Amino acid sequence: MTYALIDGNCFYCSCERVFRPSLKGKALISLSNNDGCVISRTDEAKALGIKMGQPWFEIKHLEEKGLIGLSSNFALYGDMSDRMMSIIGRFSPCQEIYSIDESFADFSGIAEDLTAYSQKIRAAVLRETGIPTCVGIGATKTLAKLANHIAKKQPSWSGVCDLTQLDRYQLADMMKNIEVGEVWGIGRRIARRLGELGIYTVFDLARMRPEAARAEFSVVVGKTIQELRGISRIDLEELPDPKKQIISSRSFGLPMTDRAGLQSALSEFVAIACNKLRQQNSVAASMQIFIRTSPFDKGKQYGNSRLVTPPCPSADNLVFTKYALRALETIWRPGIKYKKAGVMLMDISPADTVQGELFPVEPEHNNRAQLMVALDGINARYGRGSVKTGSIGFHDREHWYMRQELISQGYTTSWSEVLIARA
Q1: In the predicted structure, residue 255 carries a pLDDT above the cut 60
Q2: Measured torsion, CA atoms of residues 421, 85, 121, 47, in degrees rounded to the nearest 10
Q3: Which residue numbers delimit the UmuC domain (predicted)?
Q4: What are the tens digits of pLDDT across the range 338-356?
């Protein structure tokens, strides 16, 4: 097998630059929910010493040195990702979309030179979306990820690193110069423990016995070592497995104290989670809701959750909304500044394996499947929230929606914000 990993360079920032060419060459960052911390940064921002995850308030003063911070425009990034992935899919019969900006592709059986072939992919993505990419090629998915890291870090590879063209000695020399924490699946905690065992580089890890790694760490680390040796142990997943839990939550733009606002927020989170549940043709047997204050708030701290179980597994917005609001009544406390809330659907199973109740407690629940189909269809066509449950309401949601004071236009997702070309 031969795998390729294609990903967009500083993807969020690159999406912004596509529609604002004046940002090219500038120190640019994208910020997380509520403009909290850095989640994407350009090379120019790195040169200013900005780290991933660094809070915005700590670096805001660097605006004087040319730093530009933008709120994350997730609708735009998702649309650009769909376009990029569809282009990549034209070049491989098998594709696994790994994340919003990363895609594995099966290069087995491609007759032409793989480096030249990868440059064609890069050129097509850049031409049709404006997103710059790098490509890593390897005999396993882990080696492809490693090759992609090399392609990004070493300009001499011109954006494509093909490890299949190296002999074992060249590959070993390259591995000796890469820290073990750069390996796919090796996080900071495991990297620290590996360091305690004298394993500091990718080469050191590749030499470790897989059996010892499984005993000391996990089966996954054992497979990773075999992958680094060129033995494929992680297959390409063209269709992701259905999620076992679905979470919908949000930190509020401003602290919230009123119960009506929390009811509205939780109702919307239920609608989002249930929509995801129906998209994978599943139902959930239980749900947990939670509300809490900010851990950084110097005032009164409070957090609580409640688990609810409807009579029958469901994917119905109305069912879970009713139980969520009932549960909220038992944990809401007045005078508290709530900063985050959310719902988590659990005990998920395929919808076609659930047997209906012979004597249902609430018979109308079994007759609303078509209503949910209609709701999803309308919202897909006219935009999320076009039709919604009454408890979401029409409250002033600026308090509990994300704070995005620096967000860009919906260049590809809103007709009113599409760029207009003038002669």
Answers
A1: yes
A2: 80
A3: 3-187
A4: 988 999 998 888 887 665 5
CATH topology for the 3-163 domain: Alpha-Beta Plaits (3.30.70)
Pick the CATH number of 166-228 from 1.20.1420.20, 1.10.150.20, 3.40.50.300, 3.30.360.10: 1.10.150.20
Residue 232 near residue 108 (C-beta atoms within 8 A): no
In tens, the pLDDT along 142-195 reads 999 999 999 999 989 999 999 999 999 999 999 999 999 999 989 888 999 999
The correct CATH number of 246-382 out of 3.30.1490.100, 3.40.50.1100, 1.25.40.10, 3.30.70.60 is 3.30.1490.100
